[in-house]
Amino acid sequence: MSAMEFEGRVQTKRDTSANWTAADPVLLNGEEILVDTASGEVRKKIGDGASPYTKLPFADEAIRNLIGEKVAANQGTEHAGKILGIGADGVVKPITNAGGGGAKTWGDLAGKTS
Is-contact 66 86, C-beta < 8 A? Predict the structure, then answer.
């Protein structure tokens, strides 16, 4: 049996968080969507075939929670919004020259001043 090859492109559905929330669709099992958040981030949700959009976690939620816990345990809220890295000693520290342009916060990387 030989494998068949198809040439084509797939476009992932993308909309704002407000629009996804208003529609609250049930995503198919394995269906991926992109969400433009109010804070300017683009995040992803993956459907399970049963839960509506508002009940699905973002695909990166677990890792974000782990990072947040590590920051809280090591530094408290002192570095909120700053770009952080974990040193060889396991301590979370601010990165002072991220992206080669001297960015010190996520807002700097996104070109935002606030």
Answer: no
**What is the pLDDT, as a whole number, of residue 18?**
96
Query: Which pLDDT score is estimated for 85?
Result: 67
Radius of gyration (C-alpha) of the chain in whole angstroms: 19
CA distances from 61 to 9, 39, 96 (A): 28, 16, 25
- What does the DSSP assignment read for 34-92? EEE-TTS-EEEEE--SSSBGGGSPBTTHHHHHHHHHHHHHHHTTTTTTB-EEE-TTS-E
CA dihedral sign of residues 90, 93, 96, 97: positive
Rounded distance between C-alpha atoms, residue 56 and residue 34, angstroms: 13
Q: What are phi and psi of 43, to 5 degrees?
A: -125, 170
Query: Which pLDDT score, from 0 to 100, does residue 113 have?
Result: 45
Give the span between the Cα atoms of 20 and 14, in whole angstroms: 9
C-beta neighbour count of 20 within 10 angstroms: 22
Segments of the chain with pLDDT less than 50: 112-114
